[in-house]
Amino acid sequence: MTMTPASSTPFPDGFLWGASTAAHQIEGNNTNSDWWHKEHSGTPHIKEPSLDAADSYHRWREDMDLMAVLGFTDYRFSIEWARIEPAPGHFSRAALAHYRRMVEGAFERGLRPMVTLHHFTVPRWFEERGGWTADGAADLFARYVRACAPVLNQGVRHVCTINEPNMIAVMAGAAKNGDGGFPPAGLPTPDAETTEAIIEAHRAATAAVKEIDATINTGWTIANQVYQAVDGAEEATAAYRHPREDVFIEAARADDWIGVQSYTRTRIGPDGPIPAPEDAERTLTQWEYYPSAVGHALRHTAEIAPGVPLVVTENGIATADDDRRLDYYAGALDEVAAAIEDGVDVQGYLAWSLLDNYEWGSYEPTFGLVAFDPETFARTPKPSAAWLGGFGRTRTLPRLPRTP
């Protein structure tokens, strides 16, 4: 399948062009984390454990080599709290040195690292003492961040404190409902105590990063569900959206940037969320195929937090058909380019994900630009990887024709 630009929009100066990953989803054998325990304790919604994942803890050089060859200029990856602080107050110099080597390895390959400090996993000891809502949790998170100074203090320009805090609060709310189950459409109500605690932790972490280096651009990423009112349900939509999304955008108004992460939309009627139409195309996660989501997400975030620079830190599709992945990115990037042309301050686009990976309970949803063999761990870039990476060389955002 060949796709050529119909027109193009130049990158803003310093535009971040790359892909994202998360440590637990690609590294493998993160045995001290809360998620490893969940995977091996019979949690109902977890179909399979992560085990070796993509073995990126050892193969990160190969992954970065691929990114550089493909043309990307930026790599967002997370560092693992459970490896760095496997026991309370005990910080692994070996783990810190490992992640510092990753930072230096990125620089050596011409990649700019964006480092995420927390991407859904915590040390098991932290979870057992009560997690984010326990007394002193924010201070413990800030202590961990300060310990990461050797990783961050030379050259890292972008740090994400917490990935998708709204989803952390949603999951806590689901757990308090008893069975942790999700409704057929929409999201459970976020736990209010967790919302307050995670915002406190973000602010403590931001202060800790600024202590390390005041010039580091610090923010967090928010899962934007693209809530769309149906049948005049604007008021109901705003009321539904605020605790699940807007409160977290509002908390980032003083940050250096906000990460926008979107994949699909959620329609809201007068009585609440409406499932996607029965004839809608669906991805491997059963989400509605909706490439325009990222444009709506950027504009909404800019409306709630005017003046704060935005970075698309995740956007992509779970599919086994790379032609559909190409088409999804074509539509999504058309929306990003249109937002930039309309004056939205978008400073980067990072696809999800560099690799097919462990999607929190299963390897079945394949989001990756690069496939890997679970036996040999050999990497195989998909056509979408070369197509998307190529724009890092041209320095233009593509405006592309769509394939039905």
From TrEMBL:
Keywords: Glycosidase, Hydrolase. The active site is at E314 (nucleophile). This is Family 1 glycosylhydrolase. InterPro entries: GH, Glyco_hydro_1, Glyco_hydro_1_AS. It comes from the Bacteria. Belongs to the glycosyl hydrolase 1 family.
